[in-house]
UniProtKB/TrEMBL annotation:
GO terms for molecular function: class I DNA-(apurinic or apyrimidinic site) endonuclease activity; damaged DNA binding; oxidized pyrimidine nucleobase lesion DNA N-glycosylase activity; zinc ion binding. Pfam families: H2TH. Belongs to the FPG family. This is DNA-(apurinic or apyrimidinic site) lyase. Residues 244-278 form the FPG-type domain. Keywords: DNA damage, DNA repair, DNA-binding, Endonuclease, Glycosidase, Hydrolase, Lyase, Metal-binding, Multifunctional enzyme, Nuclease, Zinc, Zinc-finger. The gene is nei1. GO terms for biological process: base-excision repair. It comes from Knoellia locipacati. It comes from the Bacteria.
Length: 279
C-alpha cells in the first residue's frame, strides 16, 4: 500500500494540472466526473493516504483513496496541443475511474478503493477523523501525542492507526521504531514527551526524504546520498532497498546482530529486533 510520502507525490503530480481547464470523465462510471468537465483544476492535496482534488467554482471535492491496488498516473503530452484539450480521447487501459485531460497533461486514476465527491462538510469530517500528517505544514503533533499517551495500545499499533498519525504505513512504522530503539509493544501511555517528539521529528524527516526521493529511504548512508542528489536538483536513483527490520524476519539486525522477528499486529506484520528495541 502507498504510504503517505507516495500519496503526497501523487498530489504533487496532479497539481501540474492546476490552473488549467480539463476534460473530465469516468470511463468505468465510478465518479460523476461531468462536474469537473471543462472546469479549471484548483488544487490537489494529500492528507495522510487520502487525496483531495478541487476545481474552481465547483462546490464538491473529489476524494480518492488508493488502498492496495489503486494508482495515479500523470503524463505530459508528447507534443504541445493547439487547443485546451486533446481532440481525441486516448484509448482506455485498465479500470480507469477518473481521467483528466488538459492542454499539457493526461492524468488517470485506476482501481481506487474510494472515488467519490465530498461537500465541504464531508471534507471536514474526513479531516477530523484523521490524525496529523507529518508531511503537512498544518499538522498539529500535539494531537498525535495526546492520542498516543491516552492509549494503552502498543505504540506499534498506534503508529499505523490513521486516526493517530495520518500517512505512516507498515514500512515506516517498523523502521521508525527500530531507529528509535523502541519496543513496539510499549503501551502508548508509557511514551514520554521526549520520545514522542523524537519519533515525530524522525517521521517528518524520513517521509520528507521519501517524498523527495520517490521511495522509502531509511538507511543512514542511503539517506545521506539521497540528500546530496536532491540538493543538486537531480532524481534519486532506485538503489536496492536497505531496511533494518522491515521484511527481514529471521535475518540479523544490522545494529546488534539479534535475529529480527515478525508478528501480526493489527492487520499487518510487524517487524522488530528484540535485541536492541527496548523501552
Ligand atoms: Zn538489534
Amino acid at each position: 500500500m502507498a504510504e503517505g510520502h507516495a500519496v503526497h507525490g501523487m498530489a504533487g503530480r496532479l497539481r501540474q494540472l492546476a490552473g488549467q481547464p480539463v476534460r473530465s470523465s469516468s470511463p468505468n462510471g465510478a465518479l460523476d466526473a461531468a462536474l469537473f468537465d471543462e472546469r479549471v483544476v484548483a488544487d490537489a492535496q494529500a492528507v495522510g493516504k487520502h487525496l483531495l482534488v478541487s476545481a474552481v467554482d465547483v462546490p464538491l471535492t473529489v476524494h480518492l483513496h488508493l488502498a492496495m491496488d489503486g494508482a495515479v498516473s500523470v503524463r505530459r503530452h508528447a507534443r504541445a496541443l493547439a487547443g485546451a484539450y486533446p481532440r481525441t480521447e486516448p484509448p482506455i487501459h485498465g479500470n480507469v475511474a477518473w481521467r483528466l485531460l488538459s492542454a499539457t497533461h493526461h492524468a488517470e486514476v485506476t482501481d481506487p478503493a474510494v472515488c467519490e465527491l465530498l461537500d465541504e462538510d464531508g471534507v471536514l469530517a474526513l479531516r477530523a477523523r484523521l490524525g496529523p500528517d507529518p508531511l503537512r505544514d498544518d499538522a498539529d503533533p500535539d494531537l498525535a501525542r495526546r492520542r498516543i499517551q491516552n492509549s494503552r495500545r502498543p505504540i506499534g499499533a498506534l503508529l499505523i492507526d490513521q486516526k493517530v498519525i495520518a500517512g505512516i504505513g507498515n514500512v515506516y512504522r517498523a523502521e521508525l521504531l527500530h531507529r528509535a530503539r523502541l519496543d513496539p509493544f510499549t503501551p502508548g501511555h508509557d511514551i514520554d514527551d521526549d520520545t514522542f517528539a523524537a519519533l515525530w521529528q524522525d517521521a517528518v524527516d524520513l517521509m520528507t526524504l521519501g517524498l523527495g526521493a520517490g521511495w522509502i529511504v531509511t538507511d543512514e548512508a542511503q539517506m545521506a546520498a539521497a540528500r546530496e542528489v536532491l540538493v543538486r536538483g537531480e532524481r534519486v536513483p532506485r538503489w536496492p532497498k536497505r531496511y533494518a527490520v522491515y521484511g527481514r524476519a529471521g535475518k540479523p539486525c544490522p545494529v546488534c546482530g539479534t535475529t529480527v522477528r515478525a508478528e501480526r499486529m493489527g492487520l499487518q506484520r510487524l517487524f522488530w529486533c528484540p535485541g536492541c528495541q527496548h523501552s
